[in-house]
Amino acid sequence: MKIAVMSCIHGNYEALDAVLLDIDRQKAEQIYCLGDLVGYGPFPHAVVEQIRSLDIPTVQGCWDEDIVEGLNACECSYPSLLAERRGHLAHEWTRENIYPETREFLAQLPLTLKSDRLCFVHGSPHSNHEYLMPNMDAFTVLERVLAIDADVLFCGHTHVPYVRQLEGGQLQVKVRQPELGNGEDCSSFKTPLKRVINVGSVGEPRHGRPNATYVIYDTDTGGVTLREVEYDYRKTCAAIIEKGLPPIFAWRLSRGLEYAEKADDPTHVCQR
Predict the structure, then answer these.
(1) Number of Cβ atoms within 10 Å of the Cβ of 86
(2) Nearest CA to 111 among 159, 147, 138?
(3) In 10, 18, 23, 71, which residue has its Cα 20 to 30 A from 88's Cα atom?
(4) Does 126 map to a domain?
(5) Residues 6+ apart with CB under 8 A from 234
(6) pLDDT of 123-155, one tens digit each?
(7) What range defines the domain where residue 219 resides?
(8) 73-102: per-residue pLDDT in tens?
(9) Whole-angstrom Cα distance, residue 163 to residue 152?
């Protein structure tokens, strides 16, 4: 069976519409969404209504959570003070421009979804704010996959698509036992091949082009196709400016960039 997996729509209805048309052309039998339906973009309500109307299984993204729970991240979550100010502006605009039923829908979204040996999350199984970067320590990534007992972990959040294979290997675990004179009990186990598939972003790509990205996955063969879909991003850029959102959002959308800002430690998750 062919399934489509998408993420990070961010209120960009033009991009979502184009991706849904492409999914239909690819004849996918099931669609999953990895959250961040809102934030940054000018059409949060329209995006949520489309996802609801199609009954697409969806997990809660970090922006979806923040709109429901309130913005509770500390300054360490932002790569700069400028990015923090823009983030707060986008949060306030989104919070003020969504309907109560939209907020209720975002509130009931689960943090994870599973289907057989596939798991769907926004950031990681640990937190929807955690970034699983392509060059992240392999042991840490493997621990995240093993924690939810899956063979394939689908995620988003980074806005850059990639496929990473974690080759099967042998892990050794040491347990210190003071009652045995500080001796260590060693045990080991083997892990089969695991994969992490980041589906990129529909509504705010950061891979260097404005095109929307998503993934087609074949559950029978394990085949992965990273899809890149062109759409009229200029309409979304114009709406961003028209609705009073920070103009830099339109600039970076038109270029598929992150505005050259990256956190020192993208895997960091604030504990506050």
Answers:
(1) 19
(2) 147
(3) 18
(4) yes
(5) 254
(6) 999 888 888 888 878 778 888 888 888 999 999
(7) 2-167+195-255
(8) 444 455 556 777 777 888 899 999 989 999
(9) 10
